[in-house]
Amino acid sequence: MSTETKTASNTEDYLRMYRQMVRIRTFEDNANQLYLSAKMPGLTHMYSGQEAVAVGICEALKVSDKITSTHRGHGHCVAKGANFKEMFCELLGKEEGYCRGKGGSMHIADQSNGNLGANAIVGGSMGIATGSAFTAKMLGKDDVTVCFFGDGATAQGIMYEVMNMAALWNLPVIYACENNGYSEYTKTEEIAAGSITARAEAFGIEAFQVDGQDVLAVNTLATDLAARARKGEGPFFIELMTYRYHGHHVGDINREYYRTKDEEKDWKENRDPIIRFRTHLVVEGLATEEELDAFNAEIASDAEAAVAYALDAKYPDVSEVDMHVFTDIKHALA
Amino acid sequence: MREITLSQAVNEALAEEMRRDPTTFIIGEDVAEAGTPFKILSGLVEEFGTKRVVDTPISEPGFVGLAVGAAMTGTRPIVDLMFGDFIFLIMDQLCNQAAKTHYMSGGKMTAPMVLRTNLGATRRSGAQHSQSLHALVAHIPGLKVAMPSSAYEAKGLLKTAIRDNNPVVIFEDKLMYQDKAGVPEKEYLIPFGIANVKRTGSDITLIGTSSMVQVAEAAADILALEGISAEVIDPRTIVPLDEGTLIKSVKKTSRAIIIDEGHQSYGITGEIASRLNEKAFYYLDAPVLRMGAMDVPIPFSPALEDITVPTPERVAANARKLCAGEMIHAT
After folding, report:
1. ipTM
2. How many domains does chain A have?
């Protein structure tokens, strides 16, 4: 755990970070149950285990700052300020979802909080994040953009193209590589030669490696880098060492051919970001076990209500199928 | 009216729109001091500076992706893709990202960007710098596709594209950059989705895109000498497509040839022919004919390259046969 010490002003921030991490875990547990009970169309990719990454970074950002997310994007969406109700509605393809049910799990985003979208093409959002930073610079805004992506995306060529441009033009973008150890069903060490941070350093980009299970370490670094990016010192690159508790997606259940149950158990019991932060909060006297249990119960109850709401919510009318193809043509096929 | 080249018309459209809207910028390879290999953008960097006329590394997916993100966050990028053939490099950013942003967000996000690129063979550029790939883009819902057929069209359509809130791809014929046409000094825009009936006629409709409009007009001249009256229509944009004007014309003439420089199979010609068959079948006196580029990679040798694209003579020959009642059961 970080050596960051308690001050009166950051207690509230810490408790919010705790709640946000629990909200992500709770959201994912519910989403997994929806899948297992065949109530959710399609598949979904669980963020559980990686909560400290999304929360540590997003808590360092303003609402007007932008993020781009991935197929494993529920955590980023929650951390950037989304509500359970619209998120579960989106997961179930309902009209009240953030994308009116047209996006689904892999494209979920609360656009009003600066989430530019979850992207189902690995590495697909790296250009978008860099372009968002380009806009900020061109229009003289002080927005920072964080590009979330996994270790698997470091194998995509576009990453090197846009890092090159971001470095040439000092764009306010932070490339946040969530290294959860697996590129789908393959160990990262089998797909990534050399060092991941060295790849960013080759472009003259300052690169950092941080314990992605330590929310305070992540938040401290992200706060510093966001402030520096606002001053024109970007871009930056962070490799966050983390772990995904579930398989590549919810259907990836028998996975011993690529990783052991002992390994999973070790991460869950000894490096869980929520347990670690909870212990820290109690030990430092920032919250009691009872207070934290109350948070957990409140969040569980919120999620339960949102799931029930979403299950009963309306599907979009079939007339919406050819809406939003173009901005100025109401029905593209009319 | 003064006459200017298609290249000058594009340059004027860009300059006018960049003066009008400070959120616009040009991005691409060698767009600033070099003004592109075709010199289309010469002078723009002097007026707008390197912050708005942005030279990039040779990284097509990277700078197109960057443009998508810029468009989503409040600027209006005008991307210069040096050759239309490079579209294959940027398909993910254009088709998976830009085209779907509005739809996947349930209408909450937009990507108002323009991608300017080119098409056209017979420049002796070989198989990787001569293709006409607009059908690939037109196939993807969410992208508008404009195909200017003259300097006048290029200016008016580009200005409309820049003001459009959707991603728009414009294909300029690279062999027409030095072709002159009358272009008013006064500002004008050409709306999308409204075809231009270039010439009225009663015996056959010739529908051409881009430089194939000139081919259709030349064919109509040949046919006129023989007493065949051809109507020539330029759809201007293939997405959206002004189906109504095309169908109305074919109902009148009862015959049609569609001429386009994309490969004939699975292309624009087949799409338009099919729509005419579906919606004007009982008015037809002859099969609707497709004339696209040959289904071969574009060869380098002039002796081979020139025969891969439709010519006025071949269009006229086919029109003659259709009007004579031949080709009803083509072999």
Report:
1. 0.95
2. 1
Q: What pLDDT is stored for residue B281 in this prediction?
A: 97
- Which domain covers residue B250, as residue numbers? 196-323
CA–CA dist B105, A85 (Å, integer): 16
Q: Within a domain: residue A1?
A: no
Annotation says B134 is catalytic: no
Q: Residues B119, B132: contact at Cβ < 8 Å?
A: yes
Whether B217 sits among the annotated catalytic residues: the reply is: no
The verdict on a CB contact (< 8 Å) between B107 and A323 is: yes
Rg (CA), chain B: 20
**Gap between the Cα atoms of A124 and B117, Å rounded:** 22
Which domain covers residue A80, as residue numbers? Answer: 8-322
Q: Name B29's Cβ contacts closer than 8 Å, sequence gap at least 6.
A: B55, B56, B57, B58, B60, B63, B80, B82
Helix, strand, or coil (residue B246): helix
- Which of A97, A127, A328 is nearest residue B66 as measured by Cβ atoms? A127
Nearest to B20 by CA among B176, B159, B120, B153: B159
Check which CATH number belongs to the domain holding A47 and give it: 3.40.50.970
Mutate to test the interface with B, among A90, A94, A158, A171 (most CBs of B within 10 A): A158
Interface contact flag, B107 A128, Cβ < 8 Å: no
- B329: in domain: no
In this structure, the strands spanning B3-5 and B289-293 are: unpaired
Local confidence pLDDT in tens for the 334 residues of chain A: 344 444 546 899 999 999 999 999 999 999 999 999 999 999 999 999 999 999 999 999 999 999 999 999 999 999 999 999 999 999 999 999 999 999 999 999 999 999 999 999 999 999 999 999 999 999 999 999 999 999 999 999 999 999 999 999 999 999 999 999 999 999 999 999 999 999 999 999 999 999 999 999 999 999 999 999 999 999 999 999 999 999 999 999 999 999 999 999 999 999 999 999 999 999 999 999 999 999 999 999 999 999 999 999 999 999 999 999 999 999 999 8
Q: Are strands B196-199 and B204-208 parallel, antiparallel or unpaired?
A: unpaired
Q: Does this model's pTM top 0.90?
A: yes
Contacts of A162 (CB under 8 A, 6+ apart): A126, A127, A129, A130, B59, B62, B65, B66
| Interface contact B105-A121, CB threshold 8 A | no
Q: CATH code at B200? A: 3.40.50.920
In this structure, are B103 and B21 located in the same domain? yes
DSSP assignments along B300-327, one per residue: SSHHHHGGGS--HHHHHHHHHHHHTTTT
